[in-house]
Amino acid sequence: VYITAVDAFDLTAAEIENLGRYMKNGGFVLADNGRPDLNFGAAEAGLRNMFIQALGNAGKSINIPNRHPIYHSFFDLNGPPFGGERTTLGNGQQDQLQQSPRVDFLEGFFVDGRLVAVYSDMGYGAFWEQSYENEPQLKMGVNLVVYALTREGSTAMPLDALLPAAD
Predict the structure, then answer these.
(1) How far apart are CA 135 and CA 143, in angstroms?
(2) Segment 21-30, tens digit of pLDDT
(3) How far apart are CA 113 and CA 116, in angstroms?
């Protein structure tokens, strides 16, 4: 599941319960802050609160170390590529990347030692929409998808279960 936000939001009690059940039973969530240029903004607060409510005491939040398989599931990355948000300045200057330099990690939410969710304060979604200068961010996106589908305990159905039985 990919969730992004640019403003504050709240989930209903049923949505929180279902999201928690999904993650605890093998589901994987990527939450991407769509406003990484705002330190501790409303989108960040909403996304973090979503995980806290959905996982409760079962979830543990830590910075994902660069040696974690999420950075090596398809492409071999040395950690997360930079993020940010491209903003038009409106004064004739070209778009400019805005990002606090403090963010050089992805945050993971773990349940019983298993990574069930990633919080990104990188605004990768904005990079994925671009048609240029986004190769590192696209590679990270591929790694996230491959990891989510192939990790132990994944809810992804094995390919052979989708194929017709051999005669």
Answers:
(1) 12
(2) 999 999 999 9
(3) 9
